[in-house]
């Protein structure tokens, strides 16, 4: 009888414990407290729409009143002075390109509204485990980089740009592969970071293997602050067509037409806002309040290149086009017209002596920084990538 009583108590305890957890996406379990917190976040992120757009790729975009977008719910942005465009334009840039550029855009939102991808609870749960590393030279053991780091020598930077070729690497559901420009400033756990580029990330998008543009920011090296795209208050969207996380319609063809996009992040020093510009479209900005060290100190380190994450078995996905650098810009993935801008807003070429080559998993990836190339206006260029496999 005593054993029966103890067994009953044990079963009851297990039942109560199970009641405190919920299963999401058929895999992850979350506590009731976590579930309530996610519900609170969803109310902040999913505002009542003026118009709803159902995309052909399955995402839902809500046209939200500009002044009611989630960015302004950030506690540091309660009295934020917003802008619709930067006060100053960059000087000295080159934009010549012999390749066609295509990009998906959602159906335009009406003037005064901006498109925000509707967030689901599963998005928030996956995002919790998807912070982004910035340290190519000391990356976690399951993350790999192939590109260059450009670091200051007494001079700080105020932005970076490049033309990035768009490819669709083969990626398993528990991996990711991306091409990015990232900017970093600060120290230890107080790194301020901004990343932009494209990625194939089924880990983050829930089995979705579309090639998507992305943005990411954090004020504390991904510990408590920041997120991808518009998954938390912070990034202020100003354009009524383009939004972070849109997939690309056209992808480069090996040996054929190459699709590229010009991406730029720079500081409008008069207003202290970090603008994200893609193919000449000012998508939006990160206010200085959420990345103060980037604005106060300037950028101390820039990275251009590929970035991937392996699965638990140590398998890494394709990076870039899946080909090693080979000097053929129709075959291997690339960054061209790589420049940074100074405090005056002038775009400047790189100093070869201040670049650091970064290659992780050398069996599967490689990079080649060519320096300045006259051909087709490529200017400072690098190729990167590889077939993936076991590391």
From TrEMBL:
Q: Which UniProt keywords apply?
A: Signal
What are the residue boundaries of the Neprosin PEP catalytic domain, all occurrences included?
A: 138-391
Where does the secretion signal sit in this chain? 1-26
The highest taxon in the source lineage is: Eukaryota
In Swiss-Prot or TrEMBL terms, this protein is called: Neprosin PEP catalytic domain-containing protein
To which species is this protein native? Papaver somniferum
The taxonomy runs: Eukaryota, Viridiplantae, Streptophyta, Embryophyta, Tracheophyta
């Amino acid at each position: 009888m005593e054993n029966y009583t103890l067994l009953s108590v044990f079963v009851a305890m297990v039942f109560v414990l199970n009641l405190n957890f919920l299963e999401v996406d058929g895999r992850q379990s979350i506590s009731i407290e976590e579930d309530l917190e996610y519900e609170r976040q969803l109310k902040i992120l999913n505002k009542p729409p003026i118009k709803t757009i159902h995309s052909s790729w399955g995402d839902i975009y809500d046209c939200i009143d500009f002044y009611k977008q989630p960015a302004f719910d950030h506690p540091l942005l309660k009295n934020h002075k917003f802008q619709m465009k930067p006060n100053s334009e960059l000087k000295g840039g080159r934009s010549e390109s012999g390749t066609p550029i295509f990009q998906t855009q959602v159906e335009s939102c009406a003037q005064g509204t901006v498109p925000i991808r509707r967030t689901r609870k599963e998005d928030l749960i996956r995002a919790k485990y998807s912070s982004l590393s910035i340290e190519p030279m000391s990356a976690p053991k399951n993350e790999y980089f192939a590109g260059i780091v450009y670091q200051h020598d007494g001079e700080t930077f105020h932005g970076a740009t490049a033309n990035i070729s768009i490819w669709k690497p083969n990626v398993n559901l528990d991996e990711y592969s991306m091409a990015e420009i990232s900017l970093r400033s600060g120290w230890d756990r107080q790194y301020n970071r901004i990343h932009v580029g494209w990625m194939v990330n089924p880990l983050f998008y829930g089995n979705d293997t579309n090639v998507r543009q992305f943005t990411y920011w954090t004020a504390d090296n991904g510990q408590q602050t920041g997120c991808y795209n518009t998954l938390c208050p912070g990034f202020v969207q100003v354009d009524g067509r383009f939004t972070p996380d849109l997939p690309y319609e056209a992808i480069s063809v090996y040996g054929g037409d190459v699709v590229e996009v010009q991406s730029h992040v720079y500081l409008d020093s008069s207003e202290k806002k970090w603008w994200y510009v893609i193919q000449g479209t000012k998508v939006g900005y990160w206010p200085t309040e959420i990345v103060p060290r980037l604005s106060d100190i300037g950028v101390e380190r820039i990275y251009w290149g590929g970035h991937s994450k392996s699965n638990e078995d140590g398998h890494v996905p394709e990076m870039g086009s899946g080909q090693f650098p080979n000097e053929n810009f129709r075959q291997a993935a690339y960054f061209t017209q790589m420049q940074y801008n100074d405090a005056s807003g002038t775009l400047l070429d790189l100093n070869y002596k201040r670049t650091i080559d970064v290659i992780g998993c050398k069996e599967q990836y490689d990079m080649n920084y060519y320096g300045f190339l006259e051909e087709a206006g490529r200017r400072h260029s690098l190729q990167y990538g590889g077939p993936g496999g076991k590391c």
